[in-house]
UniProtKB/TrEMBL annotation:
Family: Belongs to the cholesterol 7-desaturase family.
A GO BP entry: cholesterol metabolic process
Name of protein: cholesterol 7-desaturase
Pathway in which this enzyme or protein is active: Hormone biosynthesis; Steroid hormone biosynthesis; dafachronic acid biosynthesis
Subunit structure: Homotrimer. The two-component system 3-ketosteroid-9-alpha-monooxygenase is composed of an oxygenase component KshA and a reductase component KshB.
């Protein structure tokens, strides 16, 4: 019997390090300033007059004002709303309007930032170590990808650690029992190479016209960026970006792009339907993720997915100690399912599992 005391920590894992999405590029105009809460820290995101995006710690070292609430951009500097101190993109104090000197000692900590694939990504490491790998250029998500439809975005805030969510990628069996797919996806391979991981699988998709043979193939770069290629119904790419708000809470951002079919109305309908289907599956997963315990030694069946291989890969992204005091880490609260969510296509058109029959 698996038990765990209430009040213990939610998971043994700290916030992982890596590249994480903090905003869509189109959502941050020149001169914009936005407050953020990511990585268990208060941050500020701003775009200077040269068009460059910056992510920094939020609090002014002078008197602690939050630069994301009332701060303004002037040229390539952010101006504190409290006393007008100015800081450049490297966090250095460039001007104190009522002083003839600047403060060279105090710095508003900057985070390495790249703008690529139509998103803004910041590098997080708990000791502020520099990036150890790069963000790839993804042709399907570039601004000039004329073979693909306009992006469709979905966003979900999930009360669960990054690793519990990411483990879904190697859990083929849950598709049958949570999402009612007609078969458990056939996992052809799961491989890792440094910060990279690769998953290749065969899947059947239920539709109003019957079951369609297809594939789900996934590539990941660290904990914050995955690209999933769905094929069979229509070629669709999903860029999935999981950003920790804290060690036990994440924001999951999805961007879908569908291969153009030559008919804008059909493309729009297919793209939205596919995004809705995947989004509804996330809503089916959420009560599992949010209410499950983390088991250090799960009782795996012989045909379960490569959970332990995934966990070994994931372990490299923790620079802080992983808690080892317990074998079971239960959730700290209760998160009921949303009963009014729309049924997925699998629930509408798939074959019910015999185990569920009365």
């Amino acid at each position: 019997m698996v038990t765990g005391p209430l009040g213990t920590i939610r998971s043994p894992f700290p916030v992982p390090f890596g590249w994480f999405v903090v905003a869509y590029s189109a959502d941050l105009a020149v001169g914009d300033v936005e407050p953020l809460e990511h990585f268990g820290r208060h941050l500020v995101l701003w775009r200077d007059n040269d068009g460059e995006a910056h992510v920094q710690d939020a609090f002014c070292p002078h008197m602690g004002a939050h630069l994301g609430h009332g701060g303004v951009v002037e040229n390539c500097e952010i101006v504190c709303p409290f006393h007008g101190w100015r800081f450049d993109g490297e966090g250095k104090n460039t001007n104190i309007p009522y002083s003839t000197r600047v403060n060279k000692r105090e710095v508003v900590q900057p985070y390495p930032t790249v703008e690529r694939n139509s998103v803004i990504m910041a590098w997080y490491h708990p000791t502020d170590a520099p990036p150890s790998f790069e963000v790839p250029e993804l042709a399907e998500f570039g601004e000039d990808s004329d073979q693909w439809t306009d992006p469709i975005h979905r966003e979900y805030v999930i009360e669960a650690p990054w690793q519990e969510i990411a483990e879904n990628g190697v859990d083929a069996a849950h598709f049958r029992y949570v999402h009612n797919t007609d078969m458990v996806p056939e996992l052809e391979r799961y491989d890792t190479d440094g910060e990279r991981s690769f998953m290749r699988s065969v899947q059947k998709f239920p539709t109003p016209r019957g079951v369609v043979d297809g594939r789900i193939d996934s590539d990941s770069w660290g904990p914050g960026l995955s690209v999933i290629h769905f094929s069979g119904i229509v070629d669709t790419f999903l860029m999935g970006c999981n950003t920790p708000i804290s060690a036990n809470k994440c924001v999951l951002r999805f961007t879908f792009r569908v291969k153009k079919l030559g008919d804008a109305d059909t493309e729009s309908t297919v793209g939205k339907a596919f995004a809705d289907e995947v989004g509804n599956q996330v809503l089916e997963d959420m009560p599992i993720w949010q209410n499950k315990a983390h088991l250090v030694r799960p009782a795996l069946a012989d045909n379960d997915g490569p959970f332990m291989k995934f966990r070994k890969w994931a372990s490299q992204f923790y620079a802080e100690p992983v808690d080892g005091e317990a074998m079971v880490y239960p959730p700290n609260g209760s998160y009921p399912a949303e009963n009014d969510r729309e049924l997925t296509a699998s629930k509408k058109f798939g074959t019910p599992d015999p185990a569920f029959k009365l």
